[in-house]
Amino acid sequence: QVQFVESGGGLVQPGGSLRLSCAASGFAFSSYAMRWYRQAPGKERERVAFISSSGGTTTYADSVKGRFTISRDNPKNTVYLQMNSLKPEDTAVYYCYAPSLPADKYWGQGTQVTVSS
Questions:
Q1: Phi, psi at residue 109, to the nearest 5°?
Q2: Which DSSP state fits 64?
Q3: What is the rounded CA–CA span in Å between residue 13 and residue 47?
Q4: Fewer CB within 10 Å, N or C, the chain?
Q5: Which tens digit of pLDDT belongs to each residue from 6-15?
Q6: Handedness of CA 11, 90, 60, 1 (dihedral sign)
Q7: Of 8, 13, 20, which is closest to residue 82 (Cα–Cα)?
Q8: Is 94 helix (H, G, I), strand (E, B) or coil?
């Protein structure tokens, strides 16, 4: 059973930092690229960051480039998202997923990030 469990969200002031974690199970994690997504209220889910299976390639949405860093620990089946210099517009529920898996079949519950003073 494929499963993604996101954690690490919370309430943070503008300019603050959070580190999100995503524990994956049920598939050969080290063979799959991973991506972080987010969905703000009333908006569609959007791509935030991508990391290749080895971790050697990463890409970011323009809106988070230079502030967010994606990484992974293959022995731990975990992908991370370090978020610095957070802005109110980063407020959303954050999800991870392996884009090569069947679309929309295994979404986790996500983790809420709220950036507010």
A1: -85, -15
A2: T
A3: 23
A4: N
A5: 999 999 999 9
A6: positive
A7: 20
A8: strand
CB-based contact 96:4 (threshold 8 Å): yes
Q: What is the pLDDT of residues 65-77, one digit of tens each?
A: 999 999 999 999 9
Q: How far is CA 104 from CA 64, 65, 77, 98, in A?
A: 24, 26, 20, 10
Phi, psi (rounded to 5 degrees) for 76: -95, 0
Q: What is the pLDDT of residues 8-62, one digit of tens each?
A: 999 999 999 999 999 999 999 999 999 999 999 999 999 999 999 999 999 999 9
**Distance (Å, whole) CA 1 – CA 47:** 24
- Which tokens go with 72? 């992974």
Q: Residue holding tokens 């529920």?
A: 93
